[in-house]
Amino acid sequence: MTAEGQAVWKVFCPLASSMGVLAEADLQTLERLCEVAAEVRRLTNVIAEEGHTYTTENGLIKAHPAVAMAADADRRLLSYLTHFGMTPAARSKVQAIGEPPSKDPEDEFFN
């Protein structure tokens, strides 16, 4: 894992653990989440330093390549965050490990 990924790991690992959504089998996926989060951070820094666009030798204004790369990394990061229930919408769908399924009163009534 890169140094940047390790720094993100130190934030996300305790967070996922405290949410009860981290099992040993998930560590590789969490590692990917951390690497992608670090990639987003690096690309965001490149864009902040170099700008969203650049001008070619012919005077054309083009999008900086890091912009498309950051958008792709953002999509991948959101996907990983969703798997771990780390977005507002995903939190309601992810169940903590070891937590019994919630009983739905309608299930008891209709079954």
UniProtKB/TrEMBL annotation:
InterPro entries: Phage_term_ssu_P27. Pfam families: Terminase_4. This is Phage terminase small subunit P27 family. It comes from Pseudomonas monteilii.
